[in-house]
Amino acid sequence: MAKKKAKTTFYCTSCGYQSPKWLGKCPGCQEWNTFVEEREAAEETATFPELAVLNQGSRPQPLAEIENTPPAQGKSRIAEFDRVLGGGIVPGAVTLVGGDPGIGKSTLLLEVLANLSASGQKTMYVTGEESPGQVKLRSERLRIEAPSLYLLSATEVGAIIAHTLELQPQALVIDSIQTVTAPESTSPPGSVSQIRLAAAHLIKLAKTINIPLFLIGHVTKEGAIAGPRILEHMVDTVLYFESGTQHPYRILRAVKNRFGSTNEIGVFEMTGSGLKGVDSPSHIFLAERPAELAGSLVTATMEGSRPILTEIQALVSGSSMTGIPRRTTLGIDKGRASLMIAILEKQLHLLLADKDIFLNVIGGLKIIEPAIDLGLMGAIMSSYLDRAIPASTLLLGEVGLTGEIRRVNFLEQRLNEARKFGFTQAIIPKNNLGTADKTSITIKEINNIAELPALLFPTES
Ligand code: TYD
Ligand code: MG
Predict the structure, then answer these.
(1) Which superfamily does CATH assign the domain made up of 74-279 to?
(2) How many Å lie between the centroid of ligand 1 and the Cα of residue 387?
(3) Model confidence pLDDT, tens digit, residues 49-77
């Protein structure tokens, strides 16, 4: 068979978009300057006979005869990790764990495998980045003693497959997918086509022998190394490990999950002896809260099934010199914030049009739910009037365009969390009143944003 001619393709290193010519802006992900050239010798794709034997393929079957057995979930016994996965580890599931270098991906996955092997499972950690000695050093720091945790130093996908089939581990970690090479690609390691092909082989392996596979991938904004985003559509679950502004804390977030919700987050603290799950995230998000300062207040958000108390800060500063007021938000959608500012101007006649406004959610959380609207407006109002809101007051409610306050869901969970942290007063939507449990917390109702100043600053009305 005649070999096809080598061809040149341009790939977006951020999302994997393919183009026959170089482009400045990627039509796929709208990023600039992400295209790299790759020469591909388009040969036949490599096949691994060992896998072909196992993978007989399936035949068409009547839908009615297909049995639905929910996947058995293994527990890593790292509660924060299991929750983000949707309850536990599913056999045959492929999970991509992305994050900046140094965030703690290797540490987390080594701990996961150690826990699995502590419960008697054979597991394998493939390291292509660090030497086995370095991994050993880390395991000592983490005080891991796991006799059935195997370490393989390899970068060639054929070798990884062969060793996996021989050892038969019950869970596999590849650290990192950027170091793995596939035999049929002539592009350098870390390039888009290498990563894609190598991942495809590994995913096939995991599906064929039905073991969970974790692929670690570095996220890089620019440069020659392709980001793991190009793999997102190939895998079952995508987790991102990120760091908030308060440094030791790390947030694990699912951005795609075939086996559970993508709303759950896991919160970890990086300590001298590894990552520690944080059971009560409200603690850390309220930790450095200034007492009774204008512009700061607390609201309760739901992250998946868990309520978290978070501090919102607003800074409304004097008229801007340029005539174009600045609106900067961290952790809050900019459009939502503009909407809230417009409602405050219209309904409460606050003069915000020429003011710079900065909004921030403490602790690096990103909040998208509308239940924080009222809190956001309260914080802006507090900074604008330069009047502090009592530290023990919680604000909850979605605000509509006419200033009406709409009910929030999971009210009870949010109020419970507030009680736990000593909040004595909550301002909640009138429509939620029916379900509110008033033990040890004073509940005040609000029906329209116009009532907020009187509720927050009683003496002023
Ligand atoms: P690492 O897991 O190597 O990050 P990644 O694989 O995402 O690149 O860990 C990163 C950092 O964590 C590293 O700078 C050292 C620090 N660290 C601790 O603080 N405590 C520990 O117990 C370990 C193992 C690492
Ligand atoms: Mg690493």
Answers:
(1) P-loop containing nucleotide triphosphate hydrolases (3.40.50.300)
(2) 43
(3) 777 666 666 678 888 887 777 667 788 88
